Amino acid sequence: MSYPTVILKSGKDQSVRRYHPWIFSGAIKKIKGTVNEGDLVLVTDNKDEFLAIGHYQIGSIAVRIISFENVEIDGDFWKEKIKKAYKLRQRFNLAESDDNNVYRLVHAEGDGMPGLIIDYYNGTAVLQMHSIGMYLIKEYFIEALKEIYGDKLVAIYDKSEATIPFKSDIKAENGYLYGDSNIQTVVEYGNKFKVNWEEGQKTGFFIDQRENRKLLAHYSKGRSVLNVFGYTGGFSVYAMSGGAKVVHSVDSSKKAIDLTNENIALNFGDDKRHEAFAVDAFEYLNEIDGKYDLIILDPPAFAKHNNVLHNALQGYKRLNIKALEKIKPGGILFTFSCSQVVSKENFRKTIFTAAANTGRSVRILHQLTQPIDHPVNIYHPESEYLKGLVVYVE
Ligand code: SAH
User: Fold this and answer.
1) 3.40.50.150, 1.10.3380.30, 3.30.390.30, 3.40.50.2300: which CATH number matches 206-393?
2) Which of 272, 275, 201, 199 has its CA nearest to residue 236?
3) Partner of 154 for a Cys bridge, out of 25, 29, 123, 364, CB 3.0 to 4.6 A?
């Protein structure tokens, strides 16, 4: 197959030779042939030596690499890749397990498929494409999913409307690519959740916090727990099953709070230990002096780009100061950042500054990250985005 060729400037082949999956527009010397957004392109060094095959895109990341070998990129190629991703999840007991039927099947660069996210919710696969290249070949993904899941596949939902680059001419619309299925009840480590991919945030659920929620359950026994930025109550349900005395959930979205109440009822019936509040996190935190001995802070990404990094870090600092000031002596804080541009070091420094600000003795108990179904491609450190600290506050 002959593809247009992207020829790199001298020296700019180094990062590709180290398997980094992005080619920035500044690294390109010239393009041979006509190329449209989303097309497959060959990437060569400036002496015409083959380096990789990728999807071309207009923007600062010009090529997202999908193969470092010169192979045919067809339906079978994608099927194999997705099958490999599935096997990993199966091997580590996320897929086909009795007490878990929700997991991320494809984590973009982390699974060697830049621009593609597939989340699996008990029979429904939710696809989210972040590049035109991936968007144009969704038929392949449908075929692969049908083959992998067989009769278990109820529906495939495409949720790319907000994630397809806005500069492209393609107007993506959310909708079913196969079957039709409404809100689904999923089971995560034995805990039940209603997931609404049509209306919910991201693909419907924050699967990436699974292991951290499990750890939280372990610390919840007998404690009064405050779950801030709780979304649909993921951490709250685990705190309840871990034996918390009291669990309060806070989120500014009324819809999220309604679903939180539903999720609590789904697992525990009418349990008076739990209450949920649709209010602003910063305001709520002002009024909680000495009320809680376990607080979770899992805010949305404060920074989406490097140029707002400073403001984002200030935001994390302000938030954490409030929680660290007000938590009971002997309390535990689970604090997170999911901003890709905030490094582990930056996040830790921010929590250090917040702690110093309060003058309390703070010790790190755990350093948390994303789970195995959100694997980090070792050649692409940017795929590590979730950072968390569990600290003990004297
Ligand atoms: N911890 C959740 C995911 C949190 S996502 C889980 O495990 O599923 C971040 C949440 O923060 C969203 O639900 C969003 O509605 C909420 N949010 C954003 N800004 C907020 C604010 N200022 N106050 C309270 N909640 C806010």
Assistant:
1) 3.40.50.150
2) 275
3) 123
Residue 258 has pLDDT above 70, yes or no: yes
Ligand 1 probe mutation, 121, 231, 287, most atoms within 8 A of CB: 231
Determine if ligand 1 sits within 6 Å of the CB of residue 298.
yes
38-58, pLDDT tens digit by residue?
999 999 999 999 999 999 999
Answer whether 0.90 is exceeded by the pTM: yes
Residue 1: the pLDDT is: 61
Q: Which CATH superfamily does the domain covering 5-67 fall into?
A: PUA domain (2.30.130.10)
pLDDT at 306 over 80: no
Q: Is the CB of 206 under 6 A from ligand 1?
A: yes
278 close to ligand 1 (CB < 6 Angstrom): no
Average pLDDT value for residue range 120-147: 97
Structural domain spans, the chain: 5-67, 75-187, 206-393
Question: What is d(CA 96, CA 71) in angstroms, rounded to the nearest whole number?
Answer: 31
Catalytically active residues are 338
Question: 75-187 maps to which CATH number?
Answer: 3.30.750.80
Instruction: Kindly state the percentage of the chain with pLDDT values over 90.
Output: 93
- The predicted structure's pLDDT at residue 159: 97
Hey, is 204 helix, strand or coil?
A: coil
Phi-psi region of 186 (alpha: psi -120 to 50; beta: other; left: phi over 0): beta
For ligand 1, atom 15, the nearest C-alpha belongs to: 253
